[in-house]
Write a structure and sequence with these properties.
By secondary structure, the protein is of the alpha+beta class. The chain has three domains: about 30 residues; about 140 residues, Roll (PH-domain like), CATH 2.30.29; about 70 residues, Roll (Membrane-bound Lytic Murein Transglycosylase D, Chain A), CATH 3.10.350.10. About 30% of the residues lie in helices and about 20% in strands. The protein is built from five helices and nine strands. The strands form three sheets. The chain has a four-stranded antiparallel β-sheet. A three-stranded antiparallel β-sheet has the order 5-6-7, with helices on one face. The longest helix has about 45 residues. The chain is elongated and about 165 Å long. The N and C termini lie far apart (about 155 Å).
Length: about 325
């Protein structure tokens, strides 16, 4: 009776005999079990999870203490500061909206305050008076005394076409915002959800101001064009030829004196010899000049008279 072959050991169990080990060279490559190794040690994964959890807890704690450390009502403080020291005697408030600002360097401690549109009489530089005022209550320093006076971030812009206010969103599109763009400044102010109606009212009042400003600009432009046309006409009248129709009682010397010239110059311009002139005669008292000459006081020179019928050549 032949001996039976030794039984194959169960998978994962080794009897200790080297003969029980599989012949890896004989097994096809696709059937080999590969020993999977992690790209990083397991302890590094747990360390990263702990660090992330600590960062989340720290951020939550900072935000919680930031809210508790400044329980002041920013709207009350900003309104009082606005009425006492910011508004000028000739200004009145048209619209007000509560806003907030979170600087990147101190994100969890927001600066809350008011954005105000004030109206005022216009002047030469700003024909449509008024200005846009931002008054923000800065967060209280945790190391300062509880009764320390509040500090404000105060900024103002005139109602001008160089300053625009547009609606938008804050960082990551979390809340509504108003973007103020000035020649040298850009400011984004968040608007609470409860103040959306006030923000719309402020935007509408500001658009009415801009419409009045454009209308005033068009009116000034037309006045400037009219003055330019008058100046051009005066320039032409000062350079063109001047004529005068002789009236009863006038002589050649009196006509020359009237226009600030001499009788000799009048004779040379009209080809007259002597001082004899007749009523109704058109005398040329000034020829074309390169530089404009102002009108004599109390006298308006006439234009060139129409040609007489005798001077007009007959038409065929």
């Amino acid at each position: 009776m032949t001996e039976l072959p030794a039984p194959i050991p169960t998978e994962g169990v080794w009897t200790g005999e080297e003969t029980d080990l599989p012949n890896w060279d004989a097994i096809p490559r696709r059937n080999r079990r590969r020993k999977r190794r992690a790209p990083y040690p397991p302890w590094l994964k747990y360390l990263g999870a702990c660090v992330a959890l600590a960062m989340i807890l720290t951020a939550a704690q900072i935000a919680f203490h930031a809210v508790r450390s400044d329980p002041r009502d920013a709207t009350v403080y900003a309104t009082r500061e606005l009425q006492l020291s910011v508004l000028r005697p000739n200004e009145k408030v048209l619209a007000t909206v509560s806003v907030w600002q979170r600087p990147a360097i101190d994100y969890f401690r927001a600066t809350r305050g008011l954005l105000v549109l004030a109206d005022a009489p216009g002047d030469t530089a700003h024909p449509i008076g008024g200005r846009l005022i931002y008054l923000g209550l800065q967060p209280r320093d945790p190391l300062s005394a509880p009764d320390s006076p509040p500090t404000f971030d105060e900024r103002s812009w005139p109602v001008d076409t160089a300053v625009t206010v547009t609606r938008g969103r804050t960082f990551f599109w979390i809340a509504r915002a108003l973007r103020i763009t000035a020649p040298r400044e850009h400011l984004t102010l968040g608007v609470p959800s409860g103040a959306a109606a006030n923000a719309s009212a402020l935007d509408a009042a500001l658009q009415r101001k801009y419409a009045s400003l454009r209308a005033e600009g068009w009116r000034r432009r037309e006045l400037r064009r009219a003055r330019d046309r008058v100046a051009s006409a005066l320039l032409y009248d000062g350079r063109r030829e001047w004529y005068h129709t002789v009236r009863r009682g006038e002589a050649l010397a009196s006509v020359a004196r009237m226009f600030g010239t001499t009788p000799e110059a009048v004779r040379a311009l009209n080809g007259v010899t002597g001082d004899k002139i007749r009523i109704g005669q058109a005398l040329r008292v000034k020829g074309w000049t390169r530089q404009p000459v102002p009108f004599p006081p109390g006298v308006v020179p006439e234009n060139a008279p129409p040609p007489s019928p005798a001077a007009v050549p007959p038409t065929r």
